[in-house]
Amino acid sequence: MRNKKNSLLFKQKYYICKIIYRCMKRIALIFVLLTTLSFQVSVFSQDDKSGKSKVLIEEQNVFEMFVVGNKLTVKNGQIGKQVEIISIIGTKIKEIKIVYPNFEQELNLPRGIYLLRMEETVKKTLIK
Question: Domains, the chain, ranges and CATH?
Answer without folding.
Answer: 64-127 (2.60.40.3080)
